[in-house]
Amino acid sequence: MINKQEYRDICKRERNIPIFSKDWWLDAVAGKNNWDVILIEKGGDIIAALPYYFKKKYTFKIITNPPFTQNFLLWIKYPEYQKYEKKLSYEKEIIYEIVDKLPKFDMFRLDLYYSLSNWLPFYWKGFEQTTKYTYVIEDIKDLHRILNNFSHAKRKNIKKAEKIVEVRTDLPAIDFYENHKLTLKKQNEKISYSFDTFKNIYNAVYMHNCGKVFYALDKKNNLHAALLIIWDDIQAYDLISTIDPDFRTSGATSLLIREAIKYTADKTTKFDFEGSMIESVENSFRQFGTIQKQYFNIKKINSKLLKIVLCFMDILKK
After folding, report:
1. Cα 101 from chain centre
2. pLDDT tens across 109-130, in order?
3. Packing angle, helices 152-162 and 252-264, rounded to 10
4. Quick check: 113 and 71 in contact, CB under 8 A?
5. pTM here?
6. Do residues 246 and 162 both lie within one domain?
7. Number of folded domains in the chain?
């Protein structure tokens, strides 16, 4: 509890901590008692912090990211004018200490914010790494340049949508959730999160003035698409999208993305499409003039039984 209170204080004063690593975000998506943080001190000063979410799956203890949390920031307070060689040594020292302070786990599987480019110390401690990708518009202040970087297809979609739908904001949480359930059902899919989880997120981002829903309605009150956009001082994120397959060709989603970027341009500096390893989704994100960013999934399995279970599940998939 002392660590968590100290971390809450860090989150209040450090503006460079992304929304997914904020204490109040973790309270909303994980529950106040289901996350913790490792703090590293030096000379009485906290120099590093790594939050994490823990859960039980059957009998296995798992450290991972909570729902809707793209990654966690390994926050490090670097000394001023530190040379590159010293920086790598400093990171190694911190990561080693973090690993040593981890509670017992059967599996550790954490996505880390892309500011961390040096995962070697984790490797030396027996962890594995998988590279993931997200797509980011680096500077959203220059709206004219951004829109010009949209592909011809995206600009065409926007012009089409402007004639069909009207963009509105602040769709109630229950309406957003029920629409997402409906649109997934039309595609023979089930929603993967509960309304309570969504409501916690919705209420938290609105309360902290760092989230907004954008949605598109036609003249017959058909809801074509809706986006929940969140942001911090660093960037905005396209967190959750609901797109009705019956109106997929209306161009409404592209129009909503444009409006969300325009709205957040004076609130933050970048726009993150939240990435995807799905080929068709990647293709769509790339057409918004984005830059590919890589981040690391760090993983280690301590349980021999869990290794056997996961190996068996992989065999069944083949």
Report:
1. 25
2. 999 999 999 999 999 999 999 9
3. 100
4. yes
5. 0.93
6. yes
7. 2
